């Protein structure tokens, strides 16, 4: 079945990552802000990359595995490409499959996927097969959008929001798409502006353009029928979107249950994109706030978990007390016949509650979980290939952690536990960090108790210093001659 492609891809990536520590000596490794494989260079074996910008202009006889902000393959990869990247452009030759996780994958007209079984598996924001580009086998995408302007020799399997077919699909199309009335993708486009990604977001829904052609069956589901102007071999099969599935009832033996699995994967994608966007914006605006709580997560995980869960539970009690206070103020104003004052007091308190609670719950629900994803992802990267503290490692760790949490939180039973643990750990670590900084600012110039200087045992055993009294001032020994005025019994001269 088609869902097996995702399982095989996940297994291949996991096997590659597990094998890296054992076979690191057999790999060529590139790491840094800019990584270049020159046109005349041949790398014998696989290439492991952790780069800001990756340019492959030469030849890699094995696989290309790793992560980069921006990646461009102009040369030849004689194996597979397993890449986590902000943007991947392929102008050259890839002998086997492309497995991509990230924001944007673009297959250009000059590219070549050499094997008849070469295909694309993509998890991210956008995958685009430009006009003139050819994918010999299948395309499987869990994206916001998939744009096919070129040729796909096999099937197209898509779970996401927008599917545009202006090229030729030699096999069948199975898709889950979004609602065309939901918007035009401009909000996502605005989020991408700081990152210089060459992506144009399209409106949700299914579009088969006038130049589009599907030589197999077209089966899709969504809130509204798609716009179909191209040539179809058979009548399209449209299934209106149903209610959210009960994931605990998924069994992979029936078509209806396969649709439930498709919706489950759609939820994973939405969770991944949301957490990744919050994390990227947070790292861009306040990197220290995002990175500093990781120290508390490593050194005091149980304390962080307890503090976070307690704070989250207490927040509901605080909201109840503030609501009760608002009612009391309103009633007191009416009792004193000061309705305007009571309205002003309640509105002011309401604005304070809305603003404060909104900020707190944004930190609790989103930022706290992103903090945990960042810490967990960096721990995985550190264990696999090391962590030099570079920006590329930080963002790669964020993507790994958010992907793992996005998968976990939508699993039946396990998801609630994973969400609660991530929320408690992240919120607790953040609050401990704020408490520590507040304590240091409370007494300017005085270090915290844990930073006070201490004396060695030898210094504590030294005798105290000897006290020497200062010399005495003038007294009875140097009075003027004949000075006896204090003696009343002595006769005057």
Would you kindly provide a written description of the structure presented here, covering whatever features stand out?
The chain has 493 residues and is of the alpha/beta class. 37% of the residues are buried. It has helices spanning 3-23, 186-192, 255-285, 287-291, 294-299, 301-335, 339-384, 391-409, 414-442, 457-460; strands at residues 28-37, 42-43, 47-56, 59-60, 64-73, 76-77, 81-90, 93-94, 98-107, 112-113, 120-129, 134-135, 139-142, 145-148, 151-152, 156-159, 162-165, 168-169, 173-176, 205-208, 213-214, 218-222, 227-228, 231-232, 237-240. The protein folds into two domains: 3-241, no CATH class; 278-440, no CATH class. The chain is built from ten helices and 25 strands. Helix 7 (339-384) crosses helix 8 and helix 7 packs across helix 9 (414-442). The chain has a 15-stranded parallel β-sheet that branches. Mean pLDDT is 75; it is low at 1-25, 243-256, 446-460 and 488-493. It is flat.
């Amino acid at each position: 079945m088609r869902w097996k492609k995702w399982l095989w891809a996940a297994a291949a990536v996991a096997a590659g990552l597990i094998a890296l520590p054992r076979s690191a000596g057999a790999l060529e490794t590139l790491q840094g802000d800019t990584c270049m494989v020159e046109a005349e260079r041949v790398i014998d074996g696989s290439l492991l990359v952790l780069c800001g910008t990756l340019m492959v202009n030469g030849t890699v006889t094995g696989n290309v595995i790793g992560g980069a902000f921006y990646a461009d393959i102009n040369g030849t990869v004689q194996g597979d490409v397993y890449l986590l990247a902000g943007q991947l452009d392929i102008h050259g030759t890839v002998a086997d499959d492309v497995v991509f996780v990230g924001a944007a994958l673009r297959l250009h007209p000059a590219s070549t996927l050499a094997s008849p079984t070469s295909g694309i598996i993509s998890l991210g924001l956008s995958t685009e097969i430009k006009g003139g580009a050819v994918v010999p086998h299948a395309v499987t995408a869990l994206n916001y959008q998939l744009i096919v302007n070129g040729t796909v020799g096999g099937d197209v399997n898509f779970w996401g929001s927008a599917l545009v077919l202006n090229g030729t699909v030699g096999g069948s199309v199975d898709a889950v798409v979004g609602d065309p009335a939901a918007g035009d993708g401009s909000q996502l486009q605005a989020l991408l502006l700081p990152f210089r990604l060459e992506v144009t977001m399209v409106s949700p829904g299914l579009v088969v353009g006038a130049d589009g052609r599907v030589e197999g069956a077209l089966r899709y589901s969504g809130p509204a029928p798609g716009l179909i102007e191209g040539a179809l071999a058979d009548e399209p099969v449209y299934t209106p979107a149903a209610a959210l599935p009960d994931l605990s009832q998924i069994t992979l033996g029936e078509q209806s249950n396969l649709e439930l699995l498709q919706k489950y994967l759609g939820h994973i994608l939405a969770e991944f994109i949301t957490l990744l966007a919050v994390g990227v914006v947070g790292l861009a605006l306040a990197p220290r706030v995002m990175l500093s709580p990781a120290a508390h997560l490593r050194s005091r995980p149980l304390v962080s978990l307890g503090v976070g869960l307690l704070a989250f539970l207490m927040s509901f009690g605080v909201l109840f007390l503030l609501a009760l206070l608002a009612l009391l103020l309103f009633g007191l104003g009416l009792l004193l016949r000061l309705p305007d004052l009571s309205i002003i007091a309640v509105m002011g308190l309401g604005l304070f509650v809305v603003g404060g609670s909104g900020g707190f719950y944004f930190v609790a629900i989103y930022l706290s979980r992103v903090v945990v994803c960042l810490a967990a992802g960096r721990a995985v990267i550190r264990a696999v290939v090391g962590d030099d503290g570079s920006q590329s490692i930080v963002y790669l760790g964020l993507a790994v952690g958010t992907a793992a949490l996005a998968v976990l939180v939508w699993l039946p039973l396990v998801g609630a536990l994973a969400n609660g643990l991530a929320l408690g750990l992240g919120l607790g670590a953040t609050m401990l960090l704020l408490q520590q900084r507040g304590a240091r600012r409370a007494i300017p110039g005085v270090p915290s108790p844990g930073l006070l200087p201490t004396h060695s045992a030898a210094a504590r055993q030294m005798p105290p210093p000897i006290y020497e009294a200062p010399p005495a001032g003038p007294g009875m020994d140097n009075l003027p001659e004949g000075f006896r005025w204090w003696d009343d019994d002595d006769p005057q001269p």
